[in-house]
Write a structure and sequence with these properties.
Elements lengths: L2 H22 L5 H10 L1 H13 L3 H32 L10 E5 L3 E2 L2 E2 L1 H16 L5 E4 L10 H11 L7 E4 L5 H15 L7 E7 L3 H10 L3 E7 L4 H19 L1
Parallel strand pairs: 1-4, 1-6, 4-5, 6-7
Antiparallel strand pairs: 2-3
């Protein structure tokens, strides 16, 4: 076995180890566990193609195609991640907003999930700085949720002193597309011209870029108010997952 093959074998083992750690040792990163497990066979495939390429022209062509594909996929992921990361660094003070939409996330019974807690905290700070604009709390009720995501946000915000008269509850949506479609209708009924208004959207930093693209499809002009997760490894998991979500949206 050559030195290069030993490196590839070690890489495959390392990916499997990372998959195991993400699956059994770290909470909330199952996507990363699945991704590492799916990537683990690639170094072994590279080993096989390398050996085949030394025996036939077809093997050389297949190895070249494989390496080109890996390079193109890696380049696409890096460009997409850069696009997502820059969106997550949005400065909400760059423009003024006419209304706020807080996008829902999971609720465990009646307790906001970690992602939703961070969105609530980011919203609280933004609402203190902008006390005179309406707020749409957007999120319906899913499996394992005893109340809607909008109601969970309403309870948390009012407990922290936000005027309940400002809060408009949108409790039908089940995804980001519906978040914006139903919230737009609610703001229009409130009397706002959503064609000219600028809407501050509170969501997690990794979700800002995709959310803004979806909002644009609904005819909304938005600015991002990013909320950050507390642990870097959890953020990394969601940033990578968001790459696939954004790719799906664009395709």
């Amino acid at each position: 076995m050559t030195k290069g093959h030993r490196i590839l074998l070690g890489l495959s083992g390392g990916l499997l180890l990372l998959a195991w750690i993400c699956r059994f040792e770290l909470a909330g990163v199952r996507f990363s566990a699945t991704l590492f497990a799916c990537l683990a066979p690639l170094p072994l495939l590279a080993m096989g193609l390398d050996g085949w390429s030394k025996k036939s022209k077809l093997g050389k062509h297949c190895k070249r195609i494989f390496l080109t594909g890996v390079f193109l996929c890696l380049a696409a992921v890096l460009v997409t991640e850069a696009y997502i990361i820059t969106g997550g660094r949005a400065d909400p003070s760059a423009r003024s907003a006419d209304a706020v939409i807080i996008l829902g996330a999971g609720v465990n019974g009646t307790t906001p999930s970690l992602a939703l807690q961070t969105r609530i905290r980011a919203a609280e700070q933004y609402l203190r700085e902008h006390p005179d604009i309406p707020v749409v709390l957007s999120g319906g009720q899913g499996n394992g949720e005893a109340i809607t995501e909008a109601e969970a946000m309403r309870r948390a915000l009012t407990e922290d002193g936000v005027d309940p008269a400002r809060l408009l509850l949108e409790e039908r949506s089940t995804n980001t597309e519906e978040n914006f479609a139903y919230s737009k209708t609610l703001l229009s009924e409130y009397g706002m011209d959503t064609d000219t208004a600028t809407i501050a959207v509170v969501t997690n930093d990794f979700h800002i870029r995709r959310a803004s693209l979806i909002a644009r499809r609904e005819g909304l002009t938005t600015l991002g108010v990013p909320a950050q997760l507390p642990w870097w490894w959890l953020s990394a998991n969601y940033y990578v997952r968001e790459c696939f979500g954004l790719g799906k949206l664009l395709l």
